[in-house]
Amino acid sequence: MSQVRPTDAGVRRTLTRLLGPIAAELVEVERRLQQELRHSDPYIDELARHSFRIGGKRLRPALLLLSARLIGEINDDHRTLAAVVEMVHTATLVHDDVLDDAVVRRHCETMNARWDNHSSILLGDFLFTHAFAMASSLDDVFACRALSDATNKVCEGELRQTAARGEFWLSRRDYLEIVEAKTADLCACCCELGVRYAGGSPADGKRLAAFGRDLGIAFQIADDLLDLEGDELVTGKSLGTDLAHQKMTLPLIFLRDRAAEADAARLQALFDERDPAHTALLVDWLEESGALREARRTAEEYAQQAAAELASLPDSPAKQTLLEVARFVVAREA
Ligand code: IPE
Ligand code: IPE
Ligand code: MG
Ligand code: MG
């Protein structure tokens, strides 16, 4: 298997419409990514290209570019940084697929499935360092500092999540802190960079960072729902990996906390067993108990909180698009 047939045409159409106002800029970001990742060594060249193949939503570059346009004009620094954040994000995915033993990503075989863990770890490192070298080409160090902090947070989140594996009694607060670190901080950073390099005020930078953070939390809760009830042909990535690796996610936390003692014990037994044959049963239980709905509602609340961060800014097409992106991250099927 070298490629899984994508059936995410609906998601692609939605994204194309949604990101239409920055389509030309995204094409330029794509061109830079392809150009940056060309390598004289055919093995490195193939690995790097593979990681950027079809299927990525390019959400982080979009957040950066839209935040820039919200405040002013998109300039060359933004285009460089948009490529940088996508490179950082892709590096985290390459490493994450090793951690999760995932075999499909972006409708293709993962690096670890097609090659091996060694090449995946090294390619992830290669992408991280390449991204930081690109960011250091800017005139000031703000982007390097912000990106270092955000990338460090991703690692912190993934480490905390690894430490919490098998922890059935993980608190909702710990879950949300992990999500904020591993996913939301980078989204916040993208928005803040967009503002900063458009000449926006620190206050606007903070406002957009808060928008990105809340949107990122909503995004990851929705991702965790997709891991339980999504369709691999649509998401284009391996699902069910959270249960397989005993990660407590929000629907399970809700079900656990609402359950009577005996039911909580039964849930814990299912969680501990890690038997994929029981996943359907568990998802039915989560559905019937209302835990899936409750988790989705929580994601929607974060998306609404993100939208509220923009309330004091004047209306504009970029603002409308950002608000739509906040709705999309919860409603998406991929
Ligand atoms: C997946 O991110 C990793 C998470 C933070 C949940 P995306 O869903 O944005 O992945 P791509 O870039 O579209 O492949
Ligand atoms: C990982 O979260 C987020 C990252 C920091 C890469 P997940 O493990 O849920 O991401 P997916 O579902 O594999 O994309
Ligand atoms: Mg994963
Ligand atoms: Mg996931």
Based on secondary structure, the structural category is: mainly alpha
Number of helices: 17
Distance between the termini: 21 Å
Biggest sheet character:
2 strands, antiparallel
**Widest sheet: strand order?**
1-2
- On the 0 to 100 scale, the average pLDDT is 96
Looking at the chains present, what oligomeric state does this protein adopt? single chain
Helix-strand pattern: HHHHHEEHHHHHHHHHHHH
Radius of gyration from CA coordinates: 20 Å
Name the helicity range: over 70%
Bound molecules: 3-methylbut-3-enyl trihydrogen diphosphate, magnesium ion
Report the strand count: 2
Strand content: under 5%
Q: Unreliable segments (pLDDT under 50, ≥5 consecutive)?
A: none
Give the overall form: globular
Give a written overview of the molecule.
By secondary structure, the chain is mainly α. 73% of the residues lie in helices and 1% in strands. The chain contains 17 helices and two strands. The chain has helices at 9-18, 23-36, 42-51, 59-71, 76-99, 111-114, 117-135, 142-163, 172-196, 202-229, 232-235, 241-244, 250-258, 261-273, 279-288, 291-309, 317-331; strands at 104-105, 108-109. The protein has a two-stranded antiparallel ribbon. A hairpin with a 2-residue loop joins strand 1 and strand 2. Helix 5 runs antiparallel to helix 7 and helix 5 (76-99) runs parallel beside helix 8. It is globular, with a radius of gyration of 20 Å. The model has no long low-confidence stretch (mean pLDDT 96). One 3-methylbut-3-enyl trihydrogen diphosphate binds at residues 92-93, 96, 100, 102, 154, 158, 182-183, 223, 227, 237. One 3-methylbut-3-enyl trihydrogen diphosphate is lined by residues 92-93, 96, 100, 102, 154, 158, 182-183, 223, 227, 237.
